[in-house]
């Protein structure tokens, strides 16, 4: 229950845009008709759910209403059926795929555009896994920006995780290789590797990420064991487009949605999960290192449809 309350609080802006509006629509109708569905459609699209995903949700919702026992025309049944439908849309990839972190050390390669919250998310991931009892090492393989290494070093101090780094402009793959060797030699459980995020030069980024993966496979044929893409929730539908590019160039295995607490565009989670068929692993709900939560589809679907009235 405490986690659900935190989720509701973190999704406050999205709930105001989506949950409050849905409740208002349902209360203004005495029966379910096409006008109600049209208003729901407008509301979902305005909350960054996207046109295709909105239409798919409404098709499924209509079918649930048709099959509803007894009086299937009472608008009050829509709320729970809509939450159930959203859960079904976002669940499959997340529920069916377990994290592949059985190796020692396991390697998580973290990718994402600059400014997405990537480095802060790495600190949060470090904190999360250290709380689970794992020994975590970091690698500063974003050597393109000197500030990226400095930022990671600072976070490393805060979460008590050593950071392997080299001079600005060094070969990112060499940094990753050295860090993997160090993690193995010092008996660490997990190595989290930061990478550059220069999407404007896709070809170079693709080559760089491919080289990092290639040199790691010299030490472990299955490395990197996970590739997490960090997306900025405040960018809404643009996050989906970024995700499609990174999925193409870096073999993404899971998503982390950062800054979800600071946006009314949390509805973008739904098309991201549906269209990419990738598991959403974690969501960021604040600025502190402990503000990273495992993504639970049911809790998310119900939280975004809660309204301010539900907190009374």
Walk me through the structure.
- By secondary structure, the chain is α/β, with parallel strands linked by helices.
- It has an eight-stranded mixed sheet, with helices on both faces.
- It is built from 14 helices and eight strands.
- The protein is elongated and about 65 Å long.
Which tags fit this structure?
single chain, 312 residues, alpha/beta, 8-stranded mixed β-sheet, 51% helix
TL;DR of this structure?
This protein has 14 helices and eight strands.
Give the arrangement of secondary structure elements:
Elements: H1 2-10, H2 12-17, H3 19-27, H4 34-46, H5 51-67, H6 78-90, H7 92-96, E1 106-111, H8 118-131, E2 136-140, H9 146-159, E3 163-164, H10 172-185, E4 190-194, H11 202-216, E5 226-232, H12 237-250, E6 254-258, H13 269-276, E7 280-284, E8 292-294, H14 297-304
Parallel strand pairs: 1-4, 1-5, 2-3, 2-4, 5-6, 6-7
Antiparallel strand pairs: 7-8
Q: Report the C-alpha radius of gyration, rounded.
A: 21 Å
Task: Find the structural class using helix and strand composition.
Answer: alpha/beta
Order of helices and strands: HHHHHHHEHEHEHEHEHEHEEH
pLDDT < 50 stretches: none
What number is the mean pLDDT?
90
Total number of helices: 14
Distance between the termini: 16 Å
Strand portion, in percent?
5-15%
Question: What is the general shape?
Answer: elongated
What's the count of strands? 8
Proportion in helices: 40-55%
- Major β-sheet profile: 8 strands, mixed
Query: Within the largest sheet, what's the order of strands?
Result: 3-2-4-1-5-6-7-8
